[in-house]
Design goal:
globular, binds guanosine-5'-monophosphate, single chain, 4-stranded mixed β-sheet, alpha/beta, 5-stranded parallel β-sheet, 42% helix
């Protein structure tokens, strides 16, 4: 059986990426499994270890970096690590399923370098930074400091959008989901 492909989604925090990913995973014709990343940040309300992330201490994360267990990792926020474990990609793609990854701009670049035409990178953009600010405030999961940090980060990340294979603006959720699904369908039909 041939190995599955890698779909990388990046988007500024609050752009609706998680919702888009959840909708894509419901479409069984896409054959997607979510790559659960490791992180050294604390779980948010409702997040589960092994489902949303593998929650590791900073020490454990650093031990695994040293042991070369990550395909890619990045210090997405100062002092907070995020990374993709090689075992996670292998577990999913060896059964022929496609892996969907929610990773930042540095991670996307590294995955593309490593996997080339086996990976499709998609950047989801908010309609504007104003709309993003409203969404982050409305979500109610982050304090003012965290929102300011995420907005600054968003502006920085949007500067990388054109380096992705595809850019999709999320101004209507249904349309964004349909557009991403179509891109994935087209990509997974092709030979790697
Ligand atoms: P959050 O804290 O909101 O869950 O995620 C913050 C950021 O970390 C998001 O932009 C997300 O894409 C990124 N991220 C999550 N997992 C990974 C990973 O495994 N590798 C990299 N490079 N970034 C990640």
């Amino acid at each position: 059986m041939s190995k599955g492909k890698l779909i990388v989604l990046s988007a500024p925090s609050g752009t609706g990426k998680s919702t888009i990913i959840n909708e894509l995973m419901k479409d069984s014709t896409l054959g997607l499994s979510f790559s659960v990343s490791a992180t050294s940040r604390r779980p948010r309300e409702g997040e589960k270890d092994g489902v949303n992330y593998y929650f590791l201490t900073q020490e454990e994360f650093e031990r695994r970096i040293a042991a070369d267990e990550f395909v890619e990792w990045a210090e997405v926020y100062a002092g907070t690590y995020y990374g993709t474990l090689a075992s996670e990609i292998e577990r999913i793609t060896s059964s022929g399923r496609n892996v969907i990854m929610d990773i930042d701009v540095a991670g996307a670049e590294n995955v593309k370098k490593m996997y080339g035409s086996r990976a499709l990178t998609i950047f989801i953009e908010p309609p504007s930074l104003e709309v993003l600010k409203e969404r982050l405030t409305g979500r109610g999961t982050d304090d003012a400091d965290s929102i300011a940090r995420r907005l600054g980060k968003a502006e920085y990340e949007m500067g990388f959008a054109s380096a992705y294979d595809r850019e999709i603006v999320n101004d209507s959720l249904d349309k964004a989901v349909a557009d991403v699904a179509e891109e994935i369908r087209e990509f997974t039909r092709k030979e790697a």
